[in-house]
Amino acid sequence: MVSFADRHIGTTADAQRQMLDALGVSSEPADGSPVEALMRQAVPASIFTDACESGVPAAATEAEALAELRALASRNTVNRAMIGLGYHGTVTPSVIQRNVLENPSWYTAYTPYQPEISQGRLEALLNFQTMVSDLTGLSTANASMLDESTAVAEGMLLARRASKAKTDVFVVDADALPQTKSVLATRAAAVGIELRELDLAAGAELPAELFGVFVQYPGASGRVWDPSAVIDAAHAVGALAVVAADLLGLTLLRSPGSLGADVAVGTTQRFGVPMGFGGPHAGYMAVRAGLERQLPGRLVGVSQDAVGHPAYRLALQTREQHIRRERATSNICTAQVLLAVMASMYAVYHGPDGLRAIASDVAGKAALLRDWLVEAGAGIVHDAFFDTLNVRVPGGAAALVARAHEAGILLRQVDADTVGVAVDETTTVTDLHRVAVLFGGRQERVFGRVGGDSTGALPEALLREDEYLTHPVFHVHRSETAMMRYLKQLADRDYALDRGMIPLGSCTMKLNAATEMAAITWPEFAQLHPFAPVDDVEGTLAMIDQLESWLVEVTGYDAVSLQPNAGSQGELAGLLAIRGYHRANGDEHRTVCLIPSSAHGTNAASAVLAGMRVVVVATDELGNVDLDDLRAKIAEHAENLAALMITYPSTHGVYEEQVVEITSAVHAAGGQVYVDGANLNALLGYARFGDLGGDVSHLNLHKTFAIPHGGGGPGIGPVAAKAHLAPHLPGHPQAQKDVHAGGHVFAGGPVSGAPYGSAGVLPISWAYVRMMGADGLRHATAAAVLSANYIAARLADHFPVLYTGEQGRVAHECILDLRPLKEATGITVDDVAKRLIDFGFHAPTMSFPVAGTLMVEPTESEDLGELERFIEAMILIKAEADAVAAGRWPADDNPLVNAPHTAASLISGEWAHAYTREEAAYPVRSLVATKYWPPVRRIDNAYGDRNLVCACPPVEAFS
């Protein structure tokens, strides 16, 4: 029987022998593994681990893994969740579930760094930004945040840097979501911000000095009130106002912008994205005019292509952490694109009238529940509310919540005397009746349809009067036929793994197998509230325990927290654990973090956000950490050394021979070692971070463990640590369990809103490890390293490979140096990247970590035929560049500088170029049958930044 690993790994045994022969490596080593000899050449002997017994179970078949997941799912109970707190039941339209969430054209795409082949998802994200901007009443929204709580934290940091107030005081609404308060406390403590919690709705006065104020609208209690006076008072002392607003509520309520807010944040979860036990969901952030360049994360803008046609791209990229490093204002490296697309399409499908109708239905049902509860003699805490009621039950809250649970309804115990009840899109009138009975209401009642145009218990002075979602895109896709075709049209404009290889170095674009994806839409996983009682989530907690233990096993650490919902958040969590450890030991002065100059920008940004001071360590001509400079920096900062951050294999794609010497030197000086887990794909099964001397690492589940990139999110970045750091890993006050794999209790502050981060997609990584088994994981690593070395060897005569290890081997990726090509021919790395589109490829990573280079990572998923297709394309592009240098084509008119070529460019008007249409469109004959046509020509990036437009352009722009 063919194993799952055989399906996942693209190169067959015969292909691997052929590749090894090309590398001059014996394909018949003594142990019988055809790639083992290559791995022994690439991986330093000091860290190389032979295959041995593992705590990861032997591989299951796909059917067996699904059966085990079904058994775990059956241990969960999906009760009617009426807890609220930013997580609500919602109806995902089937046309969106099938054509986005379950569609590899959407979930296997990558961040749109090559915008010409990302126009579909960029348009979807522009819809998202327009939706958020319209509903919040603010001029510019970004392309999503990680979740609501982290968005509030980013809003706090934005307010601090944008305010002219000379103070560290930030005021927090007492009625904020409890998980948001916890995340704010974690983030504020690290950077010296003083939080002051005040009951703003009750009239508490602001302090004389503050740089910002945060308001929850509506509040966690459900209360709706007018915060404009508080916002005005904040502005009067030079502070900024951050408002977390419920987007569905904003279809009926006045917008934050109309109330004077500078920043609006929140979540789009209830726009058709399942609760998923806490995530992944797309948070949002919008800002008033003048703050655009302060926005963290990604921002989609409208520009134009080479012939002046409208085209989308990521705007203002100089704001991003990978460029600004320790000067970055945020460490966010990703977004929640797949979920943002779902939320935007929910708005496209329903339109403003449909969203208003859903909100009216929710508000009307909440008001009806209020009436029935009052009739039963219950006291309602707040008169004005949208969807959430706080109900007084003196001394009886715990008992009532327990009775509700027995009846299949989840309510929230606010305190001993108060119960919270939240109504959402999925709540039925029968549910309301059952709740009313729990509070002593009538057992029998006759009722009909509720909703209509009701505004429920919202105060008239706060009702919304302005229009929103007026762009045609929110009005023309009402039928399922129209919606299906729109989603297909957008997908066809994009390039994803369902079209071909995405050889992005540092990004590991391996296949996300269909069986791995299957369970995420099962109701037993998808419909769980993150704060559901422990009895309801036994299956998910068991799955989490198993996944934690497997990750501990393969990394050589002692504990894993799955809470960080992106790699950048995992970095931050690991550094905060180091900070907590030093402080617990009385070493508050240990704040220096050593970071190699080659490191990814998130490393430096995360260190700053963890309250550390970055000191850069040089790298040598081979791309390794410069040991002499490292020793000098350790000696200089020994007393204050907190940590070293390194990536292994290195950011340059090589296995550093001296890694153990490096980690030992840091430990000898009292520092801790953070090993960035971005490149674990090249190590799994052959070495473990913990054995290299690592104390803590984050792991990119969306890279090594097959969670989809989804066009730029979701990402998951669990943090793994040795036992001495485990107590400082992120915990959560609302977590269902205290003890984690290995018996560890996490007491660090939370870094995301949900106890287990993006738990809704953890079944993907669980299934990947379960079906690969320890042997499959090891074989995947070897296959990835073999493919990278094969490409490096085959292209070495055409493009120099910039860095290799001591035996001339690379790790899982190789850096091709295009600087000599530019010097000889004038052809740039941009020209090569855009010409690859004409060959039907997504370009490798451009100019990182070295300007003027391409970093190629083929992954283990690609077969030999696809590798050869890429090699052929690169060799032919080199020949085209040489033809330019030889004068066959002019330097300003050749297939490279004019790439990519659209179908329209080939058939419109006279063909006046120095090369033929065939040379432009079909540089290899195989493309005739399989051609991918980019929808736009090369995009003018500078134009888009000079003329910043971050919302849907008018239809006339495309005429």
Describe this structure as you would to a colleague.
- With 959 residues, the protein is an alpha/beta fold.
- Among the domains are: 100-347, Aspartate Aminotransferase, domain 2 (3-Layer(aba) Sandwich); 557-757, Type I PLP-dependent aspartate aminotransferase-like (Major domain) (Aspartate Aminotransferase, domain 2), CATH 3.40.640.
- Helices cover 36% and strands 12% of the residues.
- The protein is built from 31 helices and 28 strands.
- It has a seven-stranded mixed β-sheet, sandwiched between helices.
- Strand 26 (845-846) and strand 27 (853-856) form a beta hairpin.
- Helix 4 (62-74) packs antiparallel against helix 24 (762-795), helix 5 runs antiparallel to helix 12 and helix 7 crosses helix 15 (480-492).
- It is globular and about 85 Å long.
- The mean pLDDT is 95.
What's the gist of this structure?
This protein has 959 residues and is α/β, with parallel strands linked by helices.
What features would you highlight for this structure?
959 residues; Aspartate Aminotransferase, domain 2; four-stranded antiparallel β-sheet; seven-stranded mixed β-sheet; alpha/beta
Just give the CATH class of the domain at 100-347: Alpha Beta
Helix residue percentage: 25-40%
- Rounded mean pLDDT score: 95
Q: What kind of sheet is the major sheet? A: 7 strands, mixed
CATH homologous superfamily assignment of the domain at 100-347: Type I PLP-dependent aspartate aminotransferase-like (Major domain)
CATH fold description of the domain at 100-347: Aspartate Aminotransferase, domain 2
Shape: globular
Strand order of the largest sheet: 2-8-7-6-5-3-4
Helix-strand makeup class? alpha/beta
Determine the oligomeric state from the structure. single chain
Distance between the termini: 56 Å
Give the low-confidence spans: none
* Annotation field: number of helices: 31
Give me the CATH architecture of the domain at 100-347, please. Answer: 3-Layer(aba) Sandwich
Task: Give the strand tally.
Answer: 28
User: What Rg is obtained from the alpha carbons, in whole angstroms?
Assistant: 28 Å
